[in-house]
Design goal:
Mean pLDDT: 80
Shape: elongated
Helix content: 25-40%
Number of strands: 5
Number of helices: 8
Number of domains: 2
Largest sheet: 3 strands, antiparallel
CATH class of the largest domain: Mainly Alpha
Distance between the termini: 76 Å
Low-confidence stretches: 1-10, 190-203
Strand content: 5-15%
Length: about 200
């Protein structure tokens, strides 16, 4: 008599197929409603499938969408998976969503964000020293837009230490990066900014 196949013997879509939708179908349904990237470990817990099967299914879906040239794509960004508009369609989506209104960051905000990204964790005083201007207002804007967040206080000084800031997972998501280590070399883009410490004073 032939032994019944175990879950490990089955493909991701065959596993528990008679108990509901296929793994790919379940993953598509979940990813349709998320607003932040979701990692494969959590998806494996939700679908009650092995993590390696979930990862294989995610990669299969991503390849399938690419091959079919769908208007969306499945990308692994900021340590998780999420649907995004295909880059070739970005202009049309922006035109539809923004209707001609562009909510872009100012040059000052972009430069401040760059300082935080490359020097994090960093306090406002050091960011101001690099830029040569007070950045309090710009930092509040970056925090409000979810690109920068507090990262504790300097030197473990509790309430007496200056607040440190770092970029968020949303920042990585917007840039299409998995880690801050994937940031490109800054020098060719902002040669006029001196990223050496100009001040050793606290905030």
């Amino acid at each position: 008599m032939t032994d019944e196949p175990t879950a490990d013997d089955l493909t991701p879509d065959e596993t528990a197929a008679d108990e509901g939708p296929s793994l790919r179908t379940a993953l598509e349904a979940i990813l349709m409603v998320v607003d932040v990237p979701v990692d494969e470990v959590l998806l494996a817990q939700v679908t009650e499938r092995p993590t390696e099967h979930v990862l294989e299914a995610l990669r299969g879906l991503a390849a399938e969408y690419d091959e079919a040239d769908r208007g969306f794509e499945l990308r692994q960004v900021a340590g998780g998976w999420r649907y995004y508009t295909r880059s070739s369609c970005t202009a049309y989506v922006e035109r539809f969503v923004l209707d001609g209104q562009h909510a872009r960051l100012t040059q000052a905000a972009l430069e401040t964000l760059a300082v935080v990204a490359y020097r994090q964790p960093v306090n406002r005083a050091r960011v101001s020293a690099v830029r040569g201007v007070n950045v309090d207002g710009v930092m509040r804007t970056l925090v409000a837009r979810g690109l920068v967040e507090e990262a504790g206080r300097e030197d473990g000084m509790g309430e007496g230490g200056s607040i440190l800031y770092r970029t968020t997972s949303y920042f990585l998501e917007r840039l299409g990066l998995n880690s801050i280590h994937d940031l490109p070399d800054l020098a060719p883009f902002l040669p006029e900014l001196d990223f050496a410490d100009r001040s050793s004073s606290g905030e």
